[in-house]
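Standup notes, structure subgroup. Blocker cleared on the JD8 input:
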Amino acid sequence: MRIDVVTIFPEYLDPLRLSLPGRAQRAGVLDLHVHDLRQWTHDRHRTVDDTPYGGGPGMVMRPEPWGEALDAIVPEDAEDAEDPPGAVLLVPTPSGEPFTQRAAAELAAEDRLVIACGRYEGIDQRVVDHAATRMRVREVSVGDYVLNGGEAAALVVVEAVVRLLPGFMGNPASLDEESHGAEGLLEYPVFTKPPVWRGHEVPAVLLGGDHARVAAWRREQAMLRTAARRPDLLHPSRTLRVGEDDLDVRLATPADAGELLTLQLACWVPEARANDSLEVPALQEDLDDVRAWLPEWTTFVVHAGPRLVGAVRCRLEGEVWDIGRLMVAPDLRGRGLGRWLLEHAEQAAPPGATRVSLFTGARSAENLRMYRRAGYRREHEQPDEPGVVRLGKPVRR
Ligand code: JD8
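Run returned:
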């Protein structure tokens, strides 16, 4: 990847010679160029700013030096239609779209980034408007606080992007578990030797060697920490309209166990009747069972106001994103909520997943039709569950 940074304080980007970005340059993964904007001024004082039209405090960065800088760094013919997609111009600004892990991942897939670091009250808006006529432009903010310029934001963006560059991170799988990673949860607490430090002990579950119990503890800690510090991540307000109803979708928490069991029983009794077998696992469970499996699955719940009306759970088994317990309140069937929840679960598939898979009753005609329309194809009969078929399809990104 090539990154060009334009600034009136080039030495501000010196830290990019260190640690990860430094290694990336030496490894040839990153081709970083830092430019002093003043080289595109032509007056004795190398002026880059002027007073704001319409009055007001401070100064604004002049368009001419920026225009010449971008002409030089991304020459007109570099953006020929023959080989899109070309460079992305990134402009840090407090009024930009939030810079997120998802944005970092998207930018890490690009060949070229040009980062324009503003100062003063900002850059004359025509620079961005003109650039947008010949390349993709993203105005991004690295956080809801005010900095004095774009350089610090450029350091943040470069670090967040470079560490995602293919083949650069030591163990890409660790990316999945990070905060804002696939699940969008904050990280669980971490510990190392000694087992006791100043009277503080390492949680016993971590010393027991039972990987499943460690995974469940870590997931619970991540949930509790996220609920305490970033409830917005647990309750992303994704409103879904089904009929007149505005439905809220969020990640389930341990407190949802009771309602989930109620919905599960309401959904699986008709399912069992349709398949003449009450042996279906969902009907064998009680509240403790639901409480037990909740920390092991990523579970989305849908509420119409206070009422739980839909849910689905999913988890990674090797490279398979396993989707199950897709439930829609019987009185809300046939409005597309099931299909919507299925897509929601599919979209949550982490980078490591290559297939999505689920199973349903061989005689659940309505479900089979919906899954077929959603691109699922029969994989095999469930060996230990006669009358149950497994369906699957490749993960679509
Ligand atoms: C670029 C000039 C300073 C901003 C008058 C203070 C990003 N999350 C963020 N906070 N602040 C910035 C940022 C601030 C910048 C510039 C980014 C260029 N300033 C200005 C407007 C108010 N001064 C940022 N990303």
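Discussed briefly. The pocket of JD8 is lined by residues 92-94, 96, 118-119, 121-122, 141-143, 145-150, 153 (CB under 6 Å).
Next: hand off to the docking folks.
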